[in-house]
Amino acid sequence: MENPLENPLSWLDQAVTWAPNWVISVAFLLLAAGVAVTLHGLALRLLRWLIPASYEFLHSLVSATQALLRAALVIFAVALTLPLVPLGTEGKAAIGHWLIVAFILLLGWSCTAAITLASDFYLRRTDIDFSGDPLGRKHLTQVRVLRRVAATLVIVITVAAALMTFESVKQYGVSLIASAGAAGLVVGLAARPLLTNLFAGIQIALTQPIRIGDAVIVEGEWGWVEEITGTYVVIKIWDWRRLVVPLSYFLEKPFQNWTRQTTDLIGSVMLWVDYTVPVTRIRAKLEELAKASKLWDGQVVNLQVVDSNERALQLRCLVSARTSPEAWDLRCEMREKLIVFLQEEYPGALPKQRAELVEFNRMTAQAAE
């Protein structure tokens, strides 16, 4: 007679003789998984009850890891129950193999969750001001880009480790590496864009040529860096369109970054006026308008004659603002108000076409003489 201590489920095998062994095994494995899910639910409720409501981070940590812990308990319960079920050696080996694969995927999932939680915890301590905090935007860009790169590497390693547990895939991988033939070359060429952008993301996170919230000009379009992923950058253009650019673009081609060191920006307004214009009076009016504007940051205001031709003078008005959007609005405001000032105070100073009119008959008579 079989000792019940060696196999606690032997009595079930003897009692339920009408059911196949695999049905009994599946039923008890599912029962073990159900018990694990139930215990996890009870423990989760107890934790939420014990943790005070003021500890928001702990509550968010419990919520973020509840699915991970539930999966871990299910795998652990099934692994403990597997040796006890009345199943053949091959069946146990197959289920054990899939448990190993599930455990590897669980480890990868845990690493990804840890990276996300660590980055979110760091960002919680950093108050990001997109309008005037380059250091905060630098930290935000580094954390987000490095988080995506690290998560991508973890996923690739996890999937590779899980696939290598299968003998057929393992042999194919070893033979592919050993042969280093045309197939390996094709795979390398196919993975080149992914690897290029992956390493570009790491370099951008470290060198910071662009950051989230930067005002840039790319391919002739002006906008803000809205998102930096592991392979591309999303730029929100001024008219709310989105320009999607590969990460490698910012390492291989030139572009303009208006907020690289600081968000302050000098805007320029160009005006064509007649030679009779009183430049000193317009310069004083520009200073008056800038001081009255809420968009001016109080640093730069100036007017210069920068060009001239046979018809008119060109004036350049410089005004500064705290951010690039404010600089654009300030330029439009100064342009409009200066034009109104010229129309009301000096209409003769507006650009004009000069011409001399001569009587046609007198010209004909003089030509006949």
Total beta strand runs: 8
Largest beta sheet: strand ordering: 4-3-2-1-5
- Separation of the first and last Cα atoms: 146 Å
Sketch the major β-sheet: 5 strands, antiparallel
H/E series, N to C?
A: HHHHHHHEEEEHEEHEEHH
Radius of gyration: 36 Å
Strand content bin: 15-25%
Helix-and-strand structural type: alpha+beta
Report low-confidence residues grouped into runs of 5 or more. Answer: 173-190
Mean pLDDT: 77
In helices, the fraction of residues equals: 55-70%
**Morphology:** elongated
User: How many alpha or pi helices?
Assistant: 11
Summarize the structure.
Helices cover 59% and strands 15% of the residues. The chain has eleven helices and eight strands.
Question: Which descriptors would you attach to this protein?
Answer:
369 residues, alpha+beta, 11 helices, 8 strands, single chain, 3-stranded antiparallel beta sheet, elongated
Outline the structure in words:
- By secondary structure, the chain is an alpha+beta fold.
- Helix content is 59%, strand content 15%.
- The chain has helices spanning 10-15, 21-50, 56-81, 89-124, 134-163, 167-179, 182-207, 249-252, 279-292, 324-345, 360-368, and strands spanning 215-218, 221-228, 232-237, 242-246, 256-257, 265-273, 296-308, 313-321.
- Helix 3 (56-81) packs antiparallel against helix 4 (89-124) and helix 4 (89-124) runs antiparallel to helix 5.
- The longest helix is centred in the N-terminal third of the chain and has 36 residues, at 89-124.
- Residues 173-190 have low confidence and may be disordered.
